[in-house]
Every structure is written in C-alpha cells, then in structure tokens.
# Entry
Amino acid sequence: MQANLEVLEGLVRRLDISVPMNQFETEVQSRLKRLARNVKMDGFRPGKAPLSAVARQHGPGVRQEVLGETLQMRFGEAVQAHQLKIAGYPRFEPKAGQADAAEMTFSASFEVYPDVRIDDLSSGKISRPVVNLTDADVAKTLEVLQKQRRTFEPADRAAIEGDLVRFDYQGTVDGAAFEGGKGEDFAAVIGEGRLLKDFEQSLTGLKAGDSKGFDLTFPAEYAARELAGKQAHFEVQVKDVQAPVLPPVDAEFAKALGVEDGDVEKLKAEVKSNLEREAKRRVQTKLKEQAMELLLRKSTLDLPQSLVAMETERLMKMTEADMQSRGVQTMKLSADMFTGQAERRVRLGLILAEIVQAHKLVAQPEQIRSLIQEQAQSYEEPEQVVQWYYQSPERMQEIESLALEENVVAWVEGQAQVEDMTTSFEELMGRA
# Structure
C-alpha cells in the first residue's frame, strides 16, 4: 500500500492513500448480494429482487459505506506505519484524473499533536491560602441558617433593613405608565436585592400607612431594555411592615437541620466540618487557578485547529442545552463567542497531558476513592453516592480527571515558589 507523507504548514500533514479498485468492487458486490437476500423492494417478495435492481437502489449507499471503511482502515495502517499521533479527524479527497485507474488515490489531510515545551517553573510564584476556622465563622453560618428559617411579625415602627415590607406602587416614565410599573400587595425584604437599591432606600423609614413619591434612574444594564437608563417616578403606599424573627439555636433547630437527637454541639460540629470541606475546596480551586495560569505562561506549543473547532462546538452545544434546561429562549450562538475559551481549554489539556505522561502522574485507586468519598460527604447517604460513582464509567472518568488535575497542581507546587498566606474564611469565600 502506498502512503506518502507530506509535512504541510504547522501541524498539518497529508497522506496519499491508494485503494485497489478490484478489491473495492469485490467487497461492494459481496455486500449487495448479502443485502439482496433480505431486502424489501416494491414489486418483489422479500429476498427475491434481482441483484441489478438492488444495485440500482442501494448501490450508491453501499459503495459510500465500503469506501469510507476502506479509507479509514488504510489510513489507520498508514498512521501506524508512520507512528503519527492524530489530532481530530482526517479529511479525504480523491485525486483528479482517475476515472479508469486500477487504483484510486485519496489525499488524507489532518493535524498531528504538537510538541509541548514547558520552561522552568522555579521563578513562578503561587500564594497558598491558609485558613483557621474560628467559632465566629461557625456562628455566622448558623446565623445564615437561622435567616433561612426566619418568620416575620408585625412591627409598629419605621422599616429598616431586613424588614418585610408590603406595599402598592405606581411608576411612570415621562408621565406615562409602563409595563410592570404597577403592583398591589407587593412584598419584599429590604436589603435582599430583589428591588433596585434606590427603591429599597426609599422604602426605608416608612411605616404602615405612609405614602411617598420619589424618582430613580434605571441602570444602563437593566433587563428591560426599554427602561434602561431612563428616569422614573414612583408613588408607593406602605400597607405593612414586619420584622424578622430568627429561630433560637436550640434542640428543635438542630433537629430541623438533620441532627436527630437535637444536640446543638453536634450541629455546630457538623457546621464546622462542612466549612472545613468548603475551605479545602476553595483553597484547591485557588491553587489550581494559579498553577494553570503559570503553566500557560511557561509553555510553548502550536494549537491543533481541529481540536479547537471540536471544543468550540462542544461548548456551544453545552450552552444551548443549559439555556433550554433553564427555560431561556435559545438565542443564535456564534462559534466566535466560544473560540477563546476553547483555545484555552485545548492548550491546557495538551499541557496537562504532557506533564502527566512525562512525570507519570497517574491517578491511584486510593486517590480516586478518597475523592469520591469527599464528594459524597455532602449527602445524607454517602455510601449510596459512592456506589453511584462506581456504577458509571463516565462518572469515574470525571473523578479520574479531577485526580490527575490534583496531581499536576501538586507537581507545579513542587516546582514553583509557594508562599503561605494567612486568610480568613470570609476572605477566602470572597465575602470580606
């Protein structure tokens, strides 16, 4: 078999592959005969149609099928002979002027994987957050849980932040009413951001029975584009002000959060354990972000455009599926919207694969098990979640990918300069 290799621009290669036409025609006829034994055609009983009729109706499809399989087989043999690492899929094109040739020659154009060069990382710097959880962090989390289970009771005073205010409102722009600008018995908690900030501030200080008029300007990025950037006038009539009442952190509260015996200390211990897991995840995320950025800066490689195109398509389909699942009307998406992200993902994928192979950073079974158990701790029945992971090769592959990323991050930490930075839990979570 002839399979000449040409090196074209960048990562592009081309192989010329010859297909003997006598073997090709023999296989086509063989398949048509097998097909004729059972094929259903108008005017004939099943399996009784003449071969010539079967060939007229099904011949083009069978020929295309045989040609595709033959090209793929011979391409695979040529790739193996030249010891090539193929990126993406080949594109086959027939050579011109081969009408009656004993052999048909096809050109297969494709890309190969690039060489990845990673420079010395010793000058790179990584900041590693070090967090010591305190009783105050646990108390803040308990307060959040209390607020989630709060009730409201009437308050004979002016509204303040945190109060539930029920009111009627009427809005106008340039003296005219607008869609969504009128409401009755509308209720919102001041400070939760359901209303525009200026609207919330205008409600603050009003009591049940109070009325007030005020102007505000809609933000330039307001969702209703016809109102964006415009000034409106509102009239409000407050009907009711209710103050929040937090449940006490007691046995009933603990039971409501899953502590069967109502032990408040157990509840606090569980909260702290959850915070520790969350802090660990956040630290790992920050280390990973820095490690990946360092690798991108220190690595040199050509990007296979076929892989970028495949990743772009994948990201676009994922976005469309996510929009549909959330009931968002699918907008026309352009590949250009995802090209930058796709290029970054492909580049990182190639870099990580090179490091894993070069330094044998394979994921160990005990490491995978530990990651699965860590993921499962957030659920009520951890062992069932563990079994759920092990029952699916796809889910196991996701965990293995996480393990490999962890190994690469650890390797980068061993090469770079890592500085421990004392950080509060609030800072780590981006709330400080």
Remarks:
- The chain has a mean pLDDT of 92.
- The chain is about 45% helix and 25% strand.
- Residues 264-298 form the longest helix (35 residues).
- The domain at 3-112 is CATH 3.30.70.1050 (Alpha-Beta Plaits).
